[in-house]
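Discussion board: Methods & Data

I've been asked by a reviewer to show the raw model output for two of the constructs in my manuscript, not just the figures. I'm not sure how much to include, so I'm pasting the format here to get opinions. Each protein appears as its amino acid sequence followed by a line of discrete structure tokens. Is this the kind of thing reviewers expect to see in a supplement, or should I convert it first? Here is construct A:
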Amino acid sequence: MKQITNAIRDNDELKYYESVYITDDNIVVNDKQLSAFTIVDNTYYSDQTDEEYRVNARIGCKLGNTEGMKQFISVTDKVLNPMVFQENILWTYERIASFPTVASCKEYIETYINEDVTQLILDEQVKMNQA
């Protein structure tokens, strides 16, 4: 059974931003381990939100034209536009849920990471990272 192993809050951000790491997840790009999830203050994205915090999941996408994508993206913002390039793979984070508290976000992550479909997604990300 997978669980949250570490969560690191970035105190340099003006609003709430936390990187969440889970059991048996070790996606490393440029000598840095990428978190499996982030928990972010939803007001980064909109001033009018029903829920205060959002859970973003790491997504890996194979690109056909890496150089074109890198030229299109001049500066990436780790909150609004998180993008990490690994050769022809783009790692980014996309919203999967929102909740009123950080604790409820973490409860959701602990359930979500043990679903069969999530296990398949995480296994494919490992294959992409190792290729």
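Construct B, same format:
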Amino acid sequence: MQLPAILIEDLVRAALKEDLGHGLDITSASVVPYDAQSRAVFKAREEGVLAGLIFGLSAFSHIDSDLSFDVYAQDGEVLEAGDTIAAIEGPAASILMAERVALNFMTHLSGIASLTRRYVLAVQGTDARIADTRKTLPGLRAVQKYAVRAGGGFNHRHGLDDCILIKDNHIAMAGGIASVLSRAKENAGHTVKIEIEVDTLDQLEQVLSHGGADIVMFDNFDIPTLKKGVEMAKGKIITEASGGVTLHTVREIAETGVEYISSGALTHSAPQMDIGLDIE
């Protein structure tokens, strides 16, 4: 469960440049003695799943190569309130300069991982897997989807180029389900999956009759209709439910027998996990 170093560095550098402006932390430069040394520790202030630690440590190492680290937790680990995550030691002003960027990455990504874990636990004992969507912040999709994996979830497609996902507007523009599936099958490479969204059981029947899709997405189905759709599709096509998925509804959705449940809330509505950096 790793991310390419170049991706981490690019995002951390951009965040540091944004925060440093003209290159000076005027508060620390004004009040912290130049030769002051310090030790600071990241601590979880609530229960949650850690994600994005490498971004936090990278922020410090980009600011000052003289800083040293002790790491006590890893991404994907479930933390309790009070658990120590990592310690940073070295020039005090450098620690303060990188603090906010480090915490911004860690609290946001850990928040996504923690929310994902709650969804995963909510469907425990069923066959359903929790998946994300493309409803991510611009520029942060890869890392937000990484955080979903850290929380025990699965990734849906990463972009428009790695899976054919036919939605209602595609069906309308291409002349119907049979037409759109035929076109997709004709143009898809042998390694590309074809998924199609359906709004009704009649549409599902058309999809199953055609046979050109690998996955069917039930969009905003109520529970009785979803259960019937899953029964119709069982053994013929991979099933996914989407739309209206919350922590309050996800268990009932999973109990229909659907194989995947996708939710944009994992990335667009996850609250930050409370993590602090305390000076020892």
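Answer (T.O., handling editor elsewhere):
This is acceptable in a supplement if you add a one-line summary per construct. For B, something like: The chain has two domains: 5-120+271-279, 125-268.
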